[in-house]
Amino acid sequence: FILIENVWKIYKMDTIVQEALKGVSFTVKKGEFVSIMGPSGSGKSTLLNIIGGLDKPSKGYVEVAGLRITEVSNDAELSRYRNEMIGFVFQLFYLIPRYTALQNVELPLIPRGVPPSKRREMALKALKIVGLEGKANSKPNQMSGGEQQRVAIARAIVGNPKVILADEPTGNLDSKSSEVIMEVFKKLNKELGVTIIMVTHNLELIWYCDRVIRLSDGKVIKIYNKEEYEELLETF
Amino acid sequence: FILIENVWKIYKMDTIVQEALKGVSFTVKKGEFVSIMGPSGSGKSTLLNIIGGLDKPSKGYVEVAGLRITEVSNDAELSRYRNEMIGFVFQLFYLIPRYTALQNVELPLIPRGVPPSKRREMALKALKIVGLEGKANSKPNQMSGGEQQRVAIARAIVGNPKVILADEPTGNLDSKSSEVIMEVFKKLNKELGVTIIMVTHNLELIWYCDRVIRLSDGKVIKIYNKEEYEELLETF
Ligand SMILES: Nc1ncnc2c1ncn2[C@@H]1O[C@H](COP(=O)(O)OP(=O)(O)OP(=O)(O)O)[C@@H](O)[C@H]1O
Ligand SMILES: Nc1ncnc2c1ncn2[C@@H]1O[C@H](COP(=O)(O)OP(=O)(O)OP(=O)(O)O)[C@@H](O)[C@H]1O
Ligand SMILES: [Mg+2]
Ligand SMILES: [Mg+2]
Fold it and tell me: Of the candidates A200, A42, A230, which has an alpha carbon nearest to the alpha carbon of residue B202?
């Protein structure tokens, strides 16, 4: 369903060349829940941005549901892919400061032509799912870090995406709020068959996943299935 | 050394009143390493911002090293307090996008009149301590989330502050990088006697602390000393 084939990402900055990804290849089946782990700077966000069509690889390609997204040159087609297929949770949230939580969550529905009253209803429902209907009219600077993160998650799920790409979705959340979010992802995955790729460094969240892909220094060094990572974690 | 007395913070937004802090009182001894824990939205960042003199309480006061900072009306005196006493690590980093990592870390030294070559030397040393001397000339958008967070930590420690206020300093870091940061804090605390107040929801980091202050819904519900929290964590 998602095919990542020999993906490289090389940044050239004046005198320095930074190889963020060095030939990453793996596949994700439809309806799988996979996590990507690895040290700070190992290339996790870069990889997720390329899978989400927000960035282009320097080499290699990515196919999602049969579409080779890395070779779509037409911006309109690429943004339609992103808008209809993908719900993206960014590591630094990227909420629009002058919009309320509700307006931020409605955003993905606008290009689809969803009428305003229906949009509001869907956005309020998504905010309720993450426990924040009370903050619907608050702006980002009127909310805590974890509340902003949960608004970003509500925005990612509001459009019923086929794929959720979540970059450290619980980095600013306490364990209770993290559990709420993981239960939301689990429900979307088990009941609606949503494919989920989640970057995290929180070992506690691995139990929700079918497989764990370990990145280090821009490369995949190991892929664990459930039995293998359970064995690994038991030793901790 | 740090006295927080009946601090309230009430936000009034059009029709809604949000009580973020409802009468918080505690003291921190000089050289203590304390952590503040609590659910998302419980008031941790609001409290830390008030202790750091970045925000004023609605009621109550805060004294640091004998200075009642909440009643200093002169902005210049308040910013001198902040600049000379406090190293602040923000939850969302707040690095200046157009400055390099090195320039961001040098910032606290400028109001003190530290000469440029000395500033660069001190900033590079702080970046080395957090493991990022290789990124000295990179801008924030050329770095990963965890790398930006570590630059923010380097900026907080570069001026040898007496007090470090760290808001979720390891939220975006993997366990190895988190350990590096905690060892930096531990060293500053044990060897230089720096007083540290750290907001976190990572239970693994509590072991570094002398006491844990639990906030919930804007109030202190419990303060644990080392024996008490060790007992609590053993049951986990
Ligand atoms: N400027 C503001 N205006 C109105 N309400 C605010 C403002 N800033 C914070 N709040 C509210 O005050 C409460 C406490 O916020 P605070 O940021 O201190 O929480 P927190 O404990 O740091 O949470 P987190 O762990 O999610 O970062 C939250 O419910 C938040 O919505
Ligand atoms: N625009 C850019 N220009 C140059 N280098 C970059 C750029 N973006 C990222 N990098 C570098 O590429 C490497 C990988 O970055 P990436 O953000 O993917 O890491 P990460 O695994 O998500 O880390 P973290 O866990 O800290 O978020 C890092 O060393 C980073 O400095
Ligand atoms: Mg990242
Ligand atoms: Mg906070």
Answer: A200
Give me the residues near ligand 4 (ion), CB cutoff below 5 Å.
A 144-145; B 45, 91
Model confidence at A235: pLDDT above 70: no
Sheet with A59-64: list strands edge to edge.
A16-28, A2-13, A59-64, A67-68
Q: What is the residue type of B207? A: W
Tens digits of per-residue pLDDT, B78-107? 999 999 999 999 999 999 999 999 999 999
> Quick check: B216 contacting A, CB < 8 Å?
no
Two tokens, residue B46:
């609001």
Give the number of other Cβ atoms within 10 Å of residue B23's Cβ: 14
Listing DSSP states for A61-120 in one string gives EEEETTEEGGG---HHHHHHHHHHHEEEE-TT----TTS-HHHHHHGGGTTTT--HHHHH
Query: Of the candidates B53, B41, B40, which has an alpha carbon nearest to the alpha carbon of residue B4?
Result: B53
- Chain centroid to CA B62: how far? 16
Kindly give the interhelix angle for B145-157 and B116-129, rounded to the nearest 10 degrees.
130
Give the pLDDT confidence of A60-104 residue by residue, as tens digits: 999 999 999 999 988 899 999 999 999 999 999 999 999 999 999
Mean pLDDT within A177-192: 95
- Give the closest residue to A44 by CA, choosing from A219, A229, A222: A219
Is A25 at the interface with chain B, CB within 8 A? Answer: no
- Minimum distance, in Å, between the CA of residue A13 and any CA atom of chain B: 9
pLDDT, tens digit (0-9, with 9 covering 90-100), for B58-83: 999 999 999 999 999 888 999 999 99
Q: What band does B235 get if pLDDT is binned at 50, 70 and 90?
A: low
- Where b means 16+ CB within 10 Å and e means fewer, A26-49 reads bebeeebbbbbbbbbbbbbbbbbb
- On whether any CB of chain B is under 8 Å from the CB of A100, the answer is no
